[in-house]
Design goal:
Blueprint lengths: L1 E3 L4 E4 L6 H8 L15 H9 L11 H7 L8 E6 L2 H14 L7 H6 L2 H10 L8 H5 L9 E6 L3 H11 L23 H10 L1 H7 L3
Parallel strand pairs: 2-3, 3-4
Antiparallel strand pairs: 1-2
Helix pairs in contact: 6-9
């Protein structure tokens, strides 16, 4: 997550969508969140500092951000990158299985096949296993200025459009966290049906098939 008070812009990073590259490109306009943290959330920031973590929680939803920061979100454009749920789930599984042994779901991915993992992922209650739609949709009483949702499948073009929108046409999108060639994985039809239901709002909004 990052925020720019100057540009009235917030970027939310949904895991395994290409958001790391977009976030890196936008770091130059990001501002320190410390002066804007709500009194009740300062303990969270202090804890992150004590653990040597970055101040900004990396994968925070819009509703989580509203609880963290004392800013008028009705003045802000909210942006994020969204990816086809089938491709995202496969990428997430490979990442957890092969590249992040410290993640709480590493052992799950390591010990389960992809279809068994889908069931566990959907039933998990962690902050990083929410449907993508839940990351950027406002709650009923939360008002924002608007959205700029980027699709992973067209990220270069749509990021350039975002940069122009922000008045920063020279922003370049780095290629980061690209998955290495690993085993080819295919979801079963049953897993696809589960994910289609789990990510129904994402499918509808982004017109994924």
């Amino acid at each position: 997550m990052l925020i720019s008070l100057k540009h009235k812009f917030i970027f939310l990073h949904i895991p395994k969508t290409g958001g790391t590259s977009a976030k890196k490109a936008l770091e130059g306009i990001a501002e320190d969140i410390s002066p804007h943290v709500r009194e009740g959330a300062k303990g969270l920031i202090a804890k992150r500092q004590a653990m040597g973590l970055e101040l900004n929680p990396p994968h925070m939803s819009l509703c989580g951000l509203a609880a963290l920061l004392e800013v008028d979100l009705s003045e802000y454009i909210i942006s994020c990158v969204v990816r086809h749920p089938f491709d995202r789930l496969i990428s997430y599984y490979k990442y957890l299985r092969h590249h992040n042994q410290a993640h709480r779901l590493h052992n799950l991915a390591k010990n389960l096949d992809i279809d068994s993992f889908v069931c566990e992922f959907i039933n998990d209650n962690g902050h990083d296993t929410e449907p993508q739609f839940n990351y950027f949709v406002p709650s009923q009483d939360l008002v924002i200025k608007g959205h700029r949702i980027l699709r992973y499948e067209h990220l270069d073009y749509e990021f350039s459009q975002l940069a122009n929108f922000l008045g920063l046409p020279n922003l370049e999108l780095p290629k980061l966290n690209q998955s290495k060639a690993e085993e080819a994985l295919v979801l079963s039809n049953a897993s696809k049906e589960l994910l289609a239901s789990f990510e129904a709002e994402t499918f509808k909004l982004m017109r994924y098939a």
